[in-house]
Amino acid sequence: MRVSTAFNRLVQLEGASVEAVRFGRDGVIVSVRLRRRRRVCSRCGQVVSVTHDTARRRWRHLDLGGVRCFVEARLRRVRCPDCGVRVEAVPFARPSARHTRAFDQLVCALAQQLARTSLSRLLRIGWRTIGRVCARVVGERLTSARFDGLRRIGIDEVSFRRGHRYLTLVLDHDRGRVVWVSEGAREKTSLDGFLDALGDRKRSIEAVSIDIAPGYYQALRERLPHARLCIDPFHVVKLANRALERQRRLQWRLHSGRKLTARDRWLSGVRWMLLTGADRHSERQRQLLVELEHANHDLYRAFLLKEQLRALYQLPEPRRAPALFEAWLDAARGSGLVHFEKLAATLARFRSGILAAIELALSNGRLEGLNSKVRLLSHRSYGFHSAEPLIALVYLCCGGLEIELPLR
């Protein structure tokens, strides 16, 4: 068998035939020629007729027997009526890339599982090259079709670097995949790119789950007036726990100025008992709660208000939620507890969003789990100097993109 025939079967480059093979200091260098006679612009893909001089280009290909393999071809510079003078396109590599499509596919498939340092050592490529390859493949695979069928979405932010650097994530609740990532968070303009990309698909969105972030809330109210905004239950209960903790500190300051007696035993260990749900109390915590009821009625009422707010999200009949929530607001306003009065004023402004979350049983729980995965991606690729490489990696690992290994 001829060497060129053997290497044609080994490298299997689309639209190219092996002419010669040589072994150099860098590895195996395979010289190929394009089979097609028509010249194609590498940017827009249209056929062109005017050509200029030629130049030899090289691309990194899959290793052969543990040895690096490079593909070389002589390409013409062509004059495109729309793009100007460009190098002709090759079918086995992306425009302006120095790696074949098979090599790009291998890098992205491994990047979904490996840290960048390990991947760089395994494939013997630059650390930043991995980011450029992932961005190139994701840019080609990521189309507007990912917005088709969007009905229920979740929006949240995640920190990816010191100095308050954040990413805004948009999740498709029905398919469990990220459909949009952009830099910035909690600002009215953070969602402009996503809402502009939706176009006419905005009408199909029925519900959006968010936390209590004024920037997101205002942008969605203006751009998606027909969608129901659902305030994430976790953040609502978090505000109640914060109000309860501030009430406990107030009581502690009132009693810490004097010597504690046996009657003040409820001050010891009461913090975690208050923040823990009543359904998860231990025997010791239940005893503390009984002592608290008799020793400090204000703090006990604060605990009951917090638990009643939590119970709204566990109603067997969600249609009763509006009446019960109004009753809770009235009780909090008239409790005489300053922190719960402020909490009632805050939650009253988001009444429709809280009730929508109860009715639709929609939360950002899945999105919070994805946030943990994004932080893991950021930590295992420690050293990002910009958001673009991380955004490409998030799409690659959380966007539902299927990358198969180029193995036969």
Polypeptide structure, described:
By secondary structure, this protein is α/β, with parallel strands linked by helices. The protein folds into three domains: 98 residues, no CATH class; 179 residues, 2-Layer Sandwich (Nucleotidyltransferase, domain 5); 128 residues. It has 15 helices and twelve strands. Strands 1, 2, 5, 6 and 7 form a five-stranded mixed β-sheet that branches. Strands 10-9-8-11-12 form a five-stranded mixed β-sheet, with helices on both faces. Strands 3-4 form a two-stranded antiparallel ribbon. Helix 11 packs antiparallel against helix 12 and helix 14 crosses helix 15. The model has no long low-confidence stretch (mean pLDDT 87).
Short key terms for the protein model shown above:
3 domains, alpha/beta, 15 helices, Nucleotidyltransferase, domain 5, five-stranded mixed beta sheet
Strand content: 15-25%
CATH class of the largest domain: Alpha Beta
- Count of folded domains: 3
What is the number of E strands? 12
Largest sheet: 5 strands, mixed
- Overall morphology: elongated
Helix content: 40-55%
- Topology order in helix (H) and strand (E) letters: HEEEEEEEHHHEEEHEHEHHHHHHHHH
Number of helical segments?
15
Q: What is the CATH topology descriptor of the largest domain? A: Nucleotidyltransferase, domain 5
Distance between the termini: 21 Å
Helix/strand-derived class? alpha/beta
CATH architecture annotation of the largest domain: 2-Layer Sandwich
